[in-house]
Amino acid sequence: MFNRQNGISKSVEGESLDACASERNSTTASQLTAGLSKLAGVGLVCLASSIMPASAGYKMELDETRWLSVGAGIRTAFTSTEDAAPDGDDRANDFDVQSIRLYFNGQVHDKIKFTLNTEEIFSDGPVDILDAFVQFELNPYFNIWLGRMLTPADRIEMNGPYYGLSWNQYTQPLYPSDQGGDAGSYGRDDGITVWGAAGKFQYAFGIFDGLQGLGNQEDDLLFAGRFAYNFLNMESNPGYYTSSTYYGSLGNILTLGVSFQTQDSGTGSELTSGDFDGYTVDLLSETVFSGGGVLNIEAEYKDFDADYTLGTPTGDAGGEFLLFDGESYFVTVAFMFAGDGFGRFQPYVRYVENEPNDGDSTDLVEAGLNYVISGHNARINFNVSSGDANITGYKLGDDVDSFSFGVQLQF
Predict the structure, then answer these.
(1) Based on the structure, what is the number of domains in the chain?
(2) What is the pTM for the complete model shown?
(3) Cβ neighbours, 10 Å, residue 322
């Protein structure tokens, strides 16, 4: 059963970083800060809707080959952030339902399935269609998905929020389909993906609409791919999706992944078009010790080349699509203690740094504690963070300290 993204949807999950206005010198610092702040808000909303597979749910068998299944997921949290209250001086204290989703899957033939997932962002947000695609699953080596789905990307975008290691994994820029609607949303886009595995090598390659209109007046397509090699045990996920931890259930894992996306005329406006290219290298190591403890190390390097960026808007009033341009990386280390009781403790620390070519660098440290009750289906999180890294990749202000307490459930 599927229930993934990335969302957290990355429209600010990288969501719609709408880019903006003429030359760098024509935009004042205050205008840029205001625009980026608005963008960051949108991005966080989109992040909240990345998708990945759920490991449980209700399944109704119609006959020997046909079945339907349904599942659900929820993430809710209390967050306290310094200097974020309406008066600008006091702490903002907020309870939020960050994500509610329903998962529907079915099989109509032993090689033909379908997926339909929905997402409601926050308790008063709209209900959106995340995924709607047909699955021709022919053999382990070659399969075809057609419809609206996750674009092949780096691990954190393929995790979605429900299958990440840390609670706040979206503090770095994401690919175009997480930018709020003009090039897809929630990390998804309309297109086709072929995927499969040969031995310990896994691949996914897709062709998507990408940016439509604005800078793409010639209707060029977006190409996306992800390739991974499992040096130790194979990761196990639906299709080409990923997870950042398996809580030791698969034994020792060491996987290196490379992803890319490219689109001619993938940035800019109707009058000032530009291209986009990006690639990512990510690494996941999970080591299971004889005593039952599990060590996770996750790292990623990302490089984006966008002709029109949040730091150098086009200046056209008719609308524009801007992206991050520069480098970004993060490292996360976690250790889950052995235990056979109700749950297991998994402390972690994550460091992220964003280095735009046309702006100041930002960074952030998050230290957290997961209480893992039933893998990704039931866990509790407490975390504290400090820094200025955010979904846009650009500096929005001074360092901010915050803490949150969250609960995630799926069935």
Answers:
(1) 1
(2) 0.86
(3) 31
